[in-house]
């Protein structure tokens, strides 16, 4: 283990995507860098250990028909290898040190760390400090939720070695839909209980309905507009979940596992930002300006904890914003960030970039809209994934693409192609007339954009 100094050029708190990339970059530039991570099981951060990578691995293995316990074991091997690689990426740099312990501010330039291996408390000082502590699941107040032994978060559920025979999911967002798809694929009976009266409320209804129909066809029960009233711990293998339907009827479900997926809030617990004078916003996120600087000029916040969209690639883009101001390269700030696409990894995946039809109309655009059933793409047929719908929104006055939503096989790749075309400000005709290789899902873009009139 490396010796720990009392002072560094840069201190990064939390091993998130932006922070670890920044740590390696700064160390390569000759800065002395300390990266403090509270848990050795979290070297590399949330994405590789408990979020994007393990979940997408499990979804993929499920689609291949691998049994659940085997997939969980393989997932553990994968995350262990990635953890080691991430640790080395930072700690093997001669200028950087990973310190394992919980960080807490004691003054604007000083942070105390309780070291995990010795329980000793040290204080380190740094000229610049970057907070990258991520987010944690919100646990709603529901009677019985704390007493139950069968309530899980996304982190703890994918640590279970045995597949639950039934899974009730509280929530209807990203985690709920991805876990519903995944656990149904492995053979669990899945029920989603979402408080929202509308399924995928931000999406156009035709697209949301296409996803809903596909999940229901996979045997997933989806209850919208419900209120979960109580969890009654059972004596045997099951708990009872009591909920009120949209119509106000009391209902109950017996289940062997309950997943709470009701959003994630900023992780600032124990960080004592007040000692540094750093302000939080009303929701508890660290308040930052467009350069991701807090109200204390030598302290920045990166990733989920600063209240931006909660995606790994946004944390990475936060790193770009900070790098540009520290090294006086071409200025890049939050004001320059546009067109953030996303993919929701259901089967098939659901991906979106730009404006939805309803948003474009609300903004006063004159638009042309086209849709294409995924089943009409030959590649979707040969993949045996005919479910889905593709949709594009084009500005009728300029022929520019305003938005695109793809619910089809490989949409998580295709959406990046559409995003690039939008960033390059190509007319929609470019995607319509490009010669794509065959047989691919990209060819669907020929047909989708040919329907724009
Ligand atoms: C189940 C799930 C699936 C997801 N899937 C995707 C996906 O497919 N694609 C996508 O882009 N995003 C996905 N996300 C979101 C993505 O994981 C997060 O947006 C991203 O990991 C946030 O990274 P970050 O840089 O904010 O910090 P994190 O990676 O969250 O790192 C924060 C680190 O700080 C540490 N820490 C906290 N407090 C302290 C302290 N006081 N002292 C020391 N260390 C501390 C934590 O232990 C943690 O390791 C998913 C999230 C979840 C939960
Ligand atoms: N593919 C990806 O990129 C990916 C995958 C997973 C997670 N994530 C990130 O993680 C974040 C957190 O995901 P999430 O699914 O926890 O949050 P979310 O914000 O996406 O969804 C929260 C859901 O919980 C519901 N809800 C809230 N309180 C409830 C209650 N008491 N009872 C019933 N339903 C309730 C809401 O109606 C909503 O449907 C996401 O915002 C996303 O940025 C991304």
UniProtKB/TrEMBL annotation:
Family of the protein in this entry: Belongs to the class-I pyridine nucleotide-disulfide oxidoreductase family.
GO molecular function annotation: flavin adenine dinucleotide binding; NAD(P)H dehydrogenase (quinone) activity
Name recorded for this polypeptide: FAD-dependent oxidoreductase
Keyword Nucleotide-binding: yes
Binding site for FAD: 56, 304
Organism lineage string: Bacteria, Pseudomonadati, Bacteroidota, Cytophagia, Cytophagales
Keyword Transcription regulation listed: no
SUPFAM superfamilies referenced in this protein's UniProt entry, alphabetically: FAD/NAD(P)-binding domain (SSF51905), FAD/NAD-linked reductases, dimerisation (C-terminal) domain (SSF55424)
Cofactor(s) in the UniProt record: FAD
Cofactor detail note: Binds 1 FAD per subunit.
Binding site for NAD(+): 171-178, 263
Occurrences of domain Pyridine nucleotide-disulphide oxidoreductase dimerisation (ranges): 343-446
């Amino acid at each position: 283990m490396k010796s720990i100094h009392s002072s560094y050029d840069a201190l990064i708190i939390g091993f998130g995507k932006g922070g670890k990339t920044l740590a390696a970059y700064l160390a390569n530039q000759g800065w002395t860098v300390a990266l403090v991570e509270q848990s050795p099981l979290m070297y590399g951060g949330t994405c590789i250990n408990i979020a994007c990578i393990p979940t997408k691995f499990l979804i993929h293995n499920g689609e291949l028909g691998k049994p659940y316990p085997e997939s969980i074991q393989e997932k553990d091997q994968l995350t262990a290898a990635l953890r080691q690689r991430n640790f080395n990426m930072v700690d093997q740099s001669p200028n950087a040190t990973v310190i394992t312990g919980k960080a807490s501010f004691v003054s604007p330039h000083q942070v105390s760390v309780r070291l995990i291996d010795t329980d000793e408390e040290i204080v380190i000082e740094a000229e610049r400090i970057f907070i990258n502590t991520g987010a944690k699941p919100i646990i709603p107040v529901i009677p019985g939720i704390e007493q139950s032994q069968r309530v899980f978060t996304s982190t703890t559920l994918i640590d279970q070695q045995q597949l639950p025979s039934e899974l009730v999911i509280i929530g209807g967002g990203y985690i709920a839909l991805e876990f519903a798809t995944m656990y149904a694929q492995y053979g669990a009976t899945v029920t989603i209980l979402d408080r929202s009266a509308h399924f995928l409320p931000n999406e156009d209804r035709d697209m949301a309905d296409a996803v809903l129909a596909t999940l229901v066809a996979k045997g997933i029960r989806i209850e919208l507009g419900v209120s979960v009233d109580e969890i009654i711990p059972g004596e045997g293998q099951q708990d009872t979940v009591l909920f009120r339907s949209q119509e106000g009827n009391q209902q109950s479900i017996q289940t062997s596992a309950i997943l709470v997926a009701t959003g994630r809030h900023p992780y600032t617990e124990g960080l004592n930002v007040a000692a540094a004078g750093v302000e939080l916003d009303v929701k508890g996120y660290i308040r930052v300006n467009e350069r991701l600087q807090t109200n204390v000029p030598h302290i920045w916040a990166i990733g989920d904890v600063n209240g931006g969209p909660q995606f790994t690639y946004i944390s990475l883009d936060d790193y770009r914003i900070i790098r540009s101001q520290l090294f006086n390269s071409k200025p890049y700030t939050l004001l320059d960030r546009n067109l953030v696409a996303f993919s929701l990894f259901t089967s098939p995946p659901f991906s979106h970039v730009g404006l939805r039809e309803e948003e474009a109309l609300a903004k006063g655009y004159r638009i042309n809209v086209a849709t294409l059933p995924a089943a009409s793409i030959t590649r979707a047929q040969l993949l045996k994934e005919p479910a889905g719908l593709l949709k594009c929104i084009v500005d009728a006055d300029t022929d520019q693409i305003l938005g695109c939503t793809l619910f089809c096989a490989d949409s998580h790749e295709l959406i990046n192609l559409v995003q690039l075309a939008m960033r390059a400000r190509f007319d929609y005709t470019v995607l319509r007339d490009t010669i794509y290789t065959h047989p691919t899902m990209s060819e669907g873009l020929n047909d989708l954009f040919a329907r724009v009139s």
